[in-house]
Amino acid sequence: MRLSVVTTMYASAAHLEELHRRLKQAIGPLFPAFETVFVDDGSPDDSLAIAKGFLQQGGRVKIVVLSRNFGHHAAMLTGLAHASGDLVFMIDSDLEEPPEVFAQLLDVMRAAPPEELVDLVYSVQRRRLGSLAKRAGGALFYPLFNLLSPVDLPGNLLNARLMTRRYLDALLSHHERQPFLSGLMRITGFRQVGVAVDKAERCHRTSYSLRKRLRATVVALVSFSDRPLFMVVAAGALLGGLSMLGIAAAIAAVVVERPVPLWLPGVLATGVVGGLIVLSVGIVGLYLGSVLAEVKARPVLVAEVHQNF
Q1: Backbone angles phi, psi at 175, to 5 degrees
Q2: pLDDT value of position 7
Q3: Where on the phi/psi map is residue 303: left (φ > 0), alpha (ψ -120 to 50), or beta?
Q4: Which is it for strands 192-197 and 3-9: parallel, antiparallel or unpaired?
Q5: Contact criterion met (CB below 8 Å) for 134 and 96
Q6: How far does CA 70 lie from the centroid of its chain?
């Protein structure tokens, strides 16, 4: 059985030598002929030059150079598409996820009985590390995503994951231009099992800035959730309905000759018009959301076919 390891490079020069060494130490005894796929995601440092040096050190090394920086998720999907192994292990290059976790993921996959084959073993942080802002952001993102999306995403996901070939082939059936990798991997289906691991806390400055995190959050929510559109429709209908009830109450007050404040009719009329506008925008949004789903063309994935001939 062949194994491929996939990682991406962006400002990774400080970690690549150690990553390469630890991968060989952790995986070599189990899969002596494993291949490592390095994806250069437009790295601004000398990561590419360091990776090219691995080509002369023996072992199977493949380097995929992107024409520019496309982002971590797109780069990782590109690397997965170039992996040839029957098993594929993806991991970040910053060493916050220890390469030695591979053996733990492999044990979980191999321990499953044949009738309950595990196609993806993913890792989650046993305890969330980082600054207060990063911990708070992570603590908010997963509940928010699961609230607004029908996809049930496990919290505190890491990128270290081990997958089978049939799972990877199904994952690569998605062709999104702005992929949210964790969401795509979740909706690909098959049997998925999570493993709690300890993430290393390293003292280097991350290239994943606050702006990139916010953009990734927006992409994730837009790609996997249309519930905000329904919330807009509901809010517009509620606002318009309450305003109409208010108008009816004001008319009833006039009929029974009770005083009505002069400002009230204008406020109620504005509420009706505003509610109808919000409702109309929400309805248009629902149609656009439907168009977006069709444009994404997410495939219907078949796990197995059973027949008696």
Answers
A1: -130, 60
A2: 95
A3: alpha
A4: unpaired
A5: no
A6: 15
Which amino acid is it at 103? A
* DSSP line for the chain: --EEEEEEESS-HHHHHHHHHHHHHHHTTT-TT-EEEEEE-S-SSSHHHHHHHHTTSSSEEEEEE-SS---HHHHHHHHHHT---SEEEE--TTSSS-TTHHHHHHHHHHHS-GGG---EEEEEESS--S-HHHHHHHHHHHHHHHHHSSS-PPTTEEEEEEEEHHHHHHHTT---SS--HHHHHHHT-S-EEEEEEPPP---S--S--HHHHHHHHHHHHHHH--HHHHHHHHHHHHHHHHHHHHHHHHHHHHHTT----TTHHHHHHHHHHHHHHHHHHHHHHHHHHHHHHHHHTPPPPP-------
Mean pLDDT of 91-102: 92
Residues 108, 195: contact at Cβ < 8 Å? yes
Q: Are 27 and 104 in contact (CB under 8 A)?
A: no
How far apart are the C-alpha atoms of 163 and 186, rounded to whole Å? Answer: 12
pTM over 0.85: no
pLDDT digits (tens, 9 = 90+) for 106-137: 999 999 887 789 999 999 988 766 666 666 66
C-alpha to C-alpha distance for 67 and 40, rounded to whole angstroms: 9
Distance CA 285, CA 233 (A): 9
User: What pLDDT is stored for residue 172 in this prediction?
Assistant: 93
Residue 227 in tokens: 């519930």
In whole angstroms, what is the distance from residue 256 CA to residue 132 CA? 60
For position 308, what pLDDT does the model report? 33
Going by C-alpha positions, the residue among 205, 171, 198 that lies closest to residue 298 is 171
pLDDT at 300 over 60: no
Q: 151: which residues sit within 8 A by CB, 6+ positions away?
A: 145, 183, 186, 187, 224
Percent of the chain surpassing pLDDT 70:
81
- Cα–Cα distance for residue pair 3/86, rounded to 1 Å: 6
